[in-house]
Amino acid sequence: MSRLSEDELIQAIRKLLSGQAPGVVVGPGDDAALVEMGDRLGVLSTDMLVEGVDFELGLTSPHDLGYKALAVNVSDLAAMAASPRFALVALGLPKDVEPSWVVELYGGLREAADEYALSIVGGDLSSASQIVLSVTVTGEVSNRGAVTRAGAGPGDRLCVTGALGAAAGGLTLARERPRDASTAWGRDLLLALNRPVARVGEGQTLAQFGATAMIDLSDGLSLDLARMCRESGVGARVVSASIPIHPALAELARALPGVEPLRLAMEGGEDFELLATLPEESVAPAAATLGERFGTRLTDLGEILQAGEGILLAGSDGRDRPLEPRGWDHFAG
Amino acid sequence: MSRLSEDELIQAIRKLLSGQAPGVVVGPGDDAALVEMGDRLGVLSTDMLVEGVDFELGLTSPHDLGYKALAVNVSDLAAMAASPRFALVALGLPKDVEPSWVVELYGGLREAADEYALSIVGGDLSSASQIVLSVTVTGEVSNRGAVTRAGAGPGDRLCVTGALGAAAGGLTLARERPRDASTAWGRDLLLALNRPVARVGEGQTLAQFGATAMIDLSDGLSLDLARMCRESGVGARVVSASIPIHPALAELARALPGVEPLRLAMEGGEDFELLATLPEESVAPAAATLGERFGTRLTDLGEILQAGEGILLAGSDGRDRPLEPRGWDHFAG
């Protein structure tokens, strides 16, 4: 895999899968697929979590792993403004895994299913040399309600829910500074890592306020913004000082001098916040409604530009620099 | 995993996932899940294929692997008498896999998708220490048309499509007698292993003829029959001499004296033929229709009994013996 990045490989696969497909409204390449389903749209998404790649056994409990596996799939549906309905779970297990571990994993899956009001309706078990957890979630959205990655236009405002970088901070803490795990800020960071929140209600609310494009931040702001811009055929200008860095990262940086909070917020990944583009006049009322309904902050990060203007980061010195799409690539390194 | 069999673990998981679930008609434990979807039923199924467990890289081309991964999921839908619609593919890849290998894999997935008239609408890529391919298929069926594993009743006839044991014979040939791979019978066996056929039309036809229960033979006749009997709360009596052993197995047994054709047919797995229970008067017309429409044979294997009578194999000596559910268990050994 050294010669192609994950995104390049995905592009090659999409080309191979292209062509007429009856009933498919949005195929591969968005947060989830949209398919015709009677008078509504069906929404389908799948995610694979691999031990040693997407999680480390020593750093997560099976309960948290199950919870997170389902939540991150629901997040893909949230980014389409859809409601989750059903889930399927395929599990590959080494032979030495204890049955009690598997039961705890399913306990976490069940807790997340109850929280997001969806039902786990099926699955598959296989043996494997490392733990592999593959979750598929289906959902639905009204015909006009779905928001893809592809609708952003020049002049739209670029907004993000919540705060960024906490999950990456939690991973750094768990690996390099476990003795601070029980501090208040340490607990915040680990909670962000192990129990991510899918912004389902927020996604639907942003759609109601006219969101033109939406993506969930699974691989980091800079990489996921680049994906949204590519799909929409636009550029963007992000104001560095506006990026909502999670406050606990300041504490982490004090404890671990090598940590750069802004970098974690821009490239860390696994925040599962929603990055959305909105008409300028919708930003203030959408932010007020998200605060009232969910206690969730909405931050205006900058603006959508023409494609030719590129993707820029406006620094505190007033200068624009190219914003390189750096983040989580499964096949990098 | 040494203390629990795959089936025992599945039972434990099902218990954990039980409870009220709005919109779920059939949850975990059947070939696929059935969910309410407007005026029809949605059908959902997922399967994980793991390198070294479900396939061996040296014995299969990436194209065949992709084709098979999709076909075996479609087979689960066929066993519900459903029509496939959409598929999702999650893929875990070691870093040293060539991009061309991945492209060929997707070529096989695409070929099967075209053959079964479904669209691959999404997926996920991850790195992993062995190749893991997790496919989810959705489909649909009319509200009254679905056939589960749970409807068999005493007095029903037990029938099976096609011939059995060829896929297991193909695996034996590939491993132990590769020099016969290009004989006519060797090619038949390898084709059964590498390019399984999902009996979609046959499943719908059997449903039209009043099939009371149906399961696809993924893990072997003896194990899958035991599952159907457990779900239906019945016993069964299989006439040994009626089992449709694939004719090429006689050639394989000549070439490899240790091979027992009847055992491969009963315990081999991966045939993906449909095992169905039918009212006695439906067997002859259903068999005639399957022959006319699809060129597929339907064989009457025996009868469904009361649960207390157990699952029996009637030998050529006229005596009944208990039919032990032996077959493919991912965690056995």
Strand fraction of chain A equals 25-35%
Oligomerization status of the protein chains: homodimer
Mean pLDDT of chain A: 89
Sequence stretches where pLDDT stays below 50 over 5 or more residues of chain A: none
> What's the gyration radius of chain A in Å?
19 Å
> How many helices of chain A does DSSP assign?
10
Distance between the amino and carboxyl termini of chain A:
10 Å
Largest sheet of chain A: 7 strands, mixed
Keywords:
homodimer; about 325 residues; alpha+beta; 7-stranded mixed sheet; 6-stranded mixed sheet; globular
Could you walk me through the main structural features you see in this protein, from its secondary elements to its overall organization?
Two copies of one chain form a homodimer. By secondary structure, chain A is of the alpha+beta class. In chain A, 36% of the residues lie in helices and 26% in strands. In chain A, the strands form two sheets. A seven-stranded mixed β-sheet of chain A has the order 8-10-7-11-9-12-13, with helices on both faces. Chain A has a six-stranded mixed β-sheet with strand order 1-2-3-6-4-5, covered by helices on one side. The first copy, chain A, starts with 5 loop residues before the first helix and ends in an 11-residue tail after the last strand. In chain A, 59% of the residues are buried.
